[in-house]
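ok trying again, last paste got cut off:
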Amino acid sequence: MRLNTKEIMEVLPHRAPFLLIDRIDELEPGKRAVGCKAVTYNEPFFAGHFPQEPVMPGVLICEALAQTGAVALLSSEEYKGKLAFFGGINKARFRKKAVPGDVLRMEVELIKCKGPVGVAKATAYIDGELCTEAELTFVIQ
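nice, full thing came through this time. structure:
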């Protein structure tokens, strides 16, 4: 299943400038999602991070990963219409800078869910090379 930006906004409450995924290429509701984010020089955060050498902040890559995972989670019938909040970020590693012109491919797999709390394994790639990895904890409300 593939989702465009409009369809993503039917699942997530995020809007510009904080919607950090452009499309979902693969979706297994309640299990996993693969999304993309085209990093452009027009991103608002580049004005201050860093003007002389624009780099997408790692925490925003984690947010983009979380939004990708939230699409997977909130697309399941059980959680439609709910919100997913960060409960934690563990084992985050930043291996490659994301700069204007890059396309982040984000893969998120839900590995545990007990009641309203769950954990996901999240990875982001640029041109097939690992950029960021983390374990994301979420709380559903």
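cool. The longest strand covers residues 103-114. Residues 58-74 form the longest helix (17 residues).
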